[in-house]
């Protein structure tokens, strides 16, 4: 009798916050010392499972595949097995996902600098270095606190700063932004938490 370990469960290839991550949960009754090994294959070369060096014999239950993927425009899937001593579980496979089409965006973090009668705003994104070349954009909203009337600045290239003239504005103003990305359809993240600033406040 060959003893098998319980296989990992809920194996999911997840596109989250600009990253492609494989997640799973331990099989029921897994021993405490269990480790996991991950491989992936792409639709370009089916049946060729590629090793992921940083996800071999790991204790955690996720593996970031973003910068491992050689081609962001091809569907990939991943698989994971549990290992403990001489025993191992069967491999469990995820569904196919494509980074470019399936990527889920996170809201950017706003950096707001008020100087004289100008606000300088730029957005930073939690991007892995290997995807920095994609043309992420962001949309920015500005409004007076309590008002529904938002001034919109749309399609700003990710590395660009927006400068807003505040000469005519007085009071408490808020800014919020979302990431946007044009693939086959247009995608955007949720808006970031508002950052509010007091403008032209004498005293």
TrEMBL record:
GO cellular component: plasma membrane
Family annotation (Pfam families): Interfer-bind, Tissue_fac
Domain of life, per lineage: Eukaryota
GO MF annotation list: cytokine receptor activity
Domain Fibronectin type-III: 7-104
SUPFAM superfamilies noted in UniProt: Fibronectin type III
PROSITE patterns recorded: FN3 (PS50853)
Protein name from the UniProt record: INLR1 protein
């Amino acid at each position: 009798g060959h003893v098998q370990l319980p296989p990992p469960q809920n194996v999911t290839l997840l596109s989250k916050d600009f990253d492609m991550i494989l997640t799973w949960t331990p099989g029921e009754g897994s021993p405490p010392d269990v480790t996991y090994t991950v491989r992936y294959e792409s639709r370009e070369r089916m049946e060729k499972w590629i090793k992921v060096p940083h996800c071999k014999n790991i204790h955690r239950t996720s593996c970031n595949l973003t910068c491992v993927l050689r081609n962001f425009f091809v569907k990939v899937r991943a698989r994971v097995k549990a290992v403990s001593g001489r025993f191992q579980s069967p491999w469990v496979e995820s569904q196919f996902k494509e980074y470019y089409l399936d990527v889920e965006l996170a809201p950017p973090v706003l950096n707001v600098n008020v100087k004289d009668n100008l606000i300088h705003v730029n957005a930073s994104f939690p991007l892995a270095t290997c995807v920095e070349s994609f043309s992420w954009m962001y949309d920015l909203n500005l409004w007076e606190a309590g008002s529904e009337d938002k001034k919109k600045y749309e399609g700003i290239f990710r590395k660009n700063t927006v400068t807003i003239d505040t000469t005519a504005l007085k009071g408490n103003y808020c800014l919020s932004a979302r990431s946007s990305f044009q693939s086959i359809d247009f995608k955007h993240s949720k808006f970031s938490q508002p950052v509010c600033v007091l403008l032209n406040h004498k005293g």
